[in-house]
Amino acid sequence: MTIGSMLGDIVNSFFKRPATGRYPFVRTEAPEDLRGKVVWNPETCTGCGLCVKDCPSQALELFTLDKAAKRYVMLYHMDCCTYCAQCEVSCRSKSIYLTNDEWELASTSRTPFEVYYGREEDVQKVLEPEPQGEPDLSPESKTE
Ligand code: SF4
Ligand code: SF4
Fold this sequence. Notes:
This protein is of the alpha+beta class. It has helices at about 5-15, 50-55, 85-90, 120-125, and strands spanning about 40, 60-65, 70-75, 95-100, 115, 140-144. The chain has a single domain, classed as Alpha-Beta Plaits (2-Layer Sandwich), CATH 3.30.70. It contains four helices and six strands. The strands form two sheets. It has a four-stranded antiparallel sheet. A hairpin with a 4-residue loop joins strand 2 and strand 3 (about 70-75). The mean pLDDT is about 90. One iron/sulfur cluster binds near residues 40, 62, 91 and 96.
């Protein structure tokens, strides 16, 4: 490339639109099949534990508070997740899946990477288990 043609390219570039997007100032819609944050629906989960067992990154933990009443809490370690979607494939009741509308997940602290899913009172029980009473959150009650 000669200096002359290089100068020509430089001058031309002043009159062209940039090839790159102006993110984050201008946002485009995420593709339909983008693999974003994993979400879980406690209403339809059967507690089978397949998603936890099949996750190659050990990014999921399922706490069983009351199997008969279908009370479960899912702990999602977002910083371990590789967004492979194996959990979504493994789940027969479509209770766990990857969203395409939550994908800006970077953070300067670790706190947002521990995501608890479940009914609020159940999550509280997992976070602050009662000293001797119900529920039993011993390792046997937890699927990891
Ligand atoms: S997307 Fe993959 S790595 Fe992330 S929780 Fe699901 S199975 Fe695990
Ligand atoms: S595979 Fe589906 S039904 Fe089974 S524990 Fe996971 S989310 Fe629940």
